[in-house]
Amino acid sequence: MRSSIERVFTRVQHALGFGTTKTPPDDTGPVQTVQIALYGQPGNPVQQVRDKTPVIYHFGFAACLPLNTDVVLATFAGDSSNGVIVASNHAKSRPTGLKPGQSELYDEADSHVLLSNDGNASVTCSGTLTINAPTVLINGALLVTGNVTAGSGGASVELLGHTHANSGGSGSGGPPNSGS
Description:
The protein has about 180 residues and is mostly beta strands.
């Protein structure tokens, strides 16, 4: 029979577990859950597979873990059947080369929001950037290197190549530096 000290020591040893996600998360309930394979001892790489393991995020942040994401499992009283995922890392997607004080939000498709340590921020998208709210104020210059289209369909106006009719009936020409 094991002593009380041995049981306590075993529970302390199992307070944290390390593993990998094996299925896409179920993100339909109040808490996201995922299947994980917990690492075992050297020579026995998988100790156990756990279904419906809760994934806990900080308020204001949500994610859906890709397959094969490394995770840290915090257990209650060293019981791996009663734990939650408290940290994750997807090595293939994680940006590298950040400087001290920088933070970056990123996804598996190579989109990034970088908060630099010099007061600047940048958004890089592998697709399009959509803002679903009125943009009320931009304090500072706005530099656009491509065309700007206001409106949609027949009521749209493009800035590049846009002309105005003057009172004499002829157009005012293109915008400055447009080559018109």
